[in-house]
Amino acid sequence: MSTEELAGRRAQLIRAIGVDGIAIVPAAVERVRNRDVHYPFRQDSDFQYLTGFPEPEAVAVFAPGHSEGEFMLFCRPRDREREIWDGYRQGPEGAIENYGADAAQVIGDLDSRILELLGSRKRVYYNLGPNPELDRRLIGWLGQLRAMSRRGLAAPEAVVSLDSVLHEMRLRKSPVEIELMRHAAQVSAAAHVRAMQTCRPGRFEFELAAEIHNDFERHGMVPAYGSIVGGGANGCVLHYTENRDELRDGTLCLIDAGGEHQGYCADITRTFPVGGRFSGEQRAVYDLVLSAQEAAIAELQVGKPWDAPHRTAVRVLTQGLKDLGVLQGDVDALIEDEKYTAFYMHQTGHWLGMDVHDVGAYKLEGQWRRFEAGMVLTVEPGLYFSAQTPGVPARFADMGIRIEDDVAVTAAMPDVLTRDVPKQAAEIEALMAA
Predict the structure, then answer these.
(1) Over the stretch 193-210, which tens digit does the pLDDT of each residue have?
(2) 349 vs 313: CA distance, rounded Å
(3) Rg, C-alpha atoms of the chain
(4) What's the predicted TM-score (pTM) here?
(5) Buried b / exposed e along 317-327 (16+ C-beta atoms within 10 A)
(6) Which of 53, 84, 246, 376 has the fewest CB atoms within 10 Å distance of its CB?
(7) Each residue of 206-228: pLDDT tens digit?
(8) Contact 232, 250 (CB under 8 A)
């Protein structure tokens, strides 16, 4: 991410919190996987969005109008011994030189500096909950300030959720962000194509996952979430991640996988026949889900409400379920009674960005928010006919189908970032036969 882009974000935050506010944003915490082995470190999205700083054990403080500068970063010191074992550190010098901090100190100085920074502010913007240790320290700082009122210091009057400001900023993607997401989508699309081309009966789910992850790593990316490769009945499990079963001829394979590029995520789902050709029943359900997705994508227009794609997809799917003989009755009544939820139990999409389920409110003052240019979301209708669900016709048993694309809202037509992976049934069959 360019220093100019990051500086622009910080300036926007500074304006939003005002001269009476101060914001405290911690880095992610390293997590132990087993004994002395850590999980791969992934920076906190809010911290990354504002600083680009890649290390743990850091806290960013934004203090509008402060004489030393408005962006202060507290981070680990340079330590030659630890750097031999764990890798290079930026230290306060690198925080200033490479990441644009106005001032930087070692993290051990935070307690001694923070009282002065907090003492002249009316509001502190901070997200309680994700970092319990820092929560306790903040409460302690506020208590100390209240006890020091006779020295001319006063505790902020309110602790305000940083989400109310920062997550609205993150919801609207800049052109730079859109291009990063487009790259993540293109690499992820190619990985899905590779998985389709290498699929055949007798291979295992984890083998297709390996093909996908290989493509991610060859492009310097990592999985944005736990990849789902579900053959047959496993495709009916929405968050199936075991990826251990054999893929069998005559069944479908559902893959939900996306890569992360410079902190920005892709999220793609495709469903295809293990043997390379859809059966008549599989094709009927697949085409129904695809029709629902295409109709939902068409609803991604500036000014339309968030729930418009979902309502459209639900109507198409419910009518289709009636046409297939799975549901009986009036379509409006079936929708009102939510009869479709036995086979379609999730929403049609979610915000997408630095987090797979990205930040940003879906409703404002109790009403579905309206789409704006720069918003990015997934569109992912599906139908799931688990054999354990009452009323599932035998011809559809254990058939799970979901089709998911990443779409940017623009002033013109919806921009499908993941368009490079086929989704028409005939295109999929031709790809797998090549």
Answers:
(1) 999 999 999 999 999 999
(2) 11
(3) 25
(4) 0.95
(5) bbbbbbebebb
(6) 84
(7) 999 999 999 999 999 999 999 99
(8) no
